[in-house]
Write a structure and sequence with these properties.
Layout (H helix, E strand, L loop, with lengths): L2 H16 L5 E3 L7 H4 L1 H19 L3 H28 L7 H9 L1 E3 L2 H17 L3 H5 L5
Helix pairs in contact: 1-3, 1-6, 3-4, 4-6
Length: 140
Amino acid sequence: MRLNTLISFVGFVILIAATYCPILRPFHLFNWDVYDGNKPYGIVILLVAVVGILGTVLNQPKIVRLTAWLSLALVIVFYVLAWLKVHTSFSFIPFHSLDAYLTRQIKFKWGWYLLLAGPLMALLGALTAKKSSLNKPANF
């Protein structure tokens, strides 16, 4: 296994592990992972990572590159949606100071670092692949 393939593989494994790490901590009571935040979206991220792992194992660099870009886009969109959800959850409260206080009680946790590091590693491994090896005919 070449180094760039190994980097992509490890990136996708980190992405799968990051979906189970805490990403939000509402009111200092409990931790939410990706599946607590949005279960169908978390399953889509998980499936993209599994397809990326299959692409690395089966030596399909185009699939690896596509899933790496797709997983990075999904994580960025998920972060934007989580940020909007946190900052608009208490907007129905007519008192701005109480709204701001309750919004400050929802903290972003360390799982976001892993959730972003996984697709970045997978993308790094996919983009450092030799371009000539993609276009070479197979030797039989």
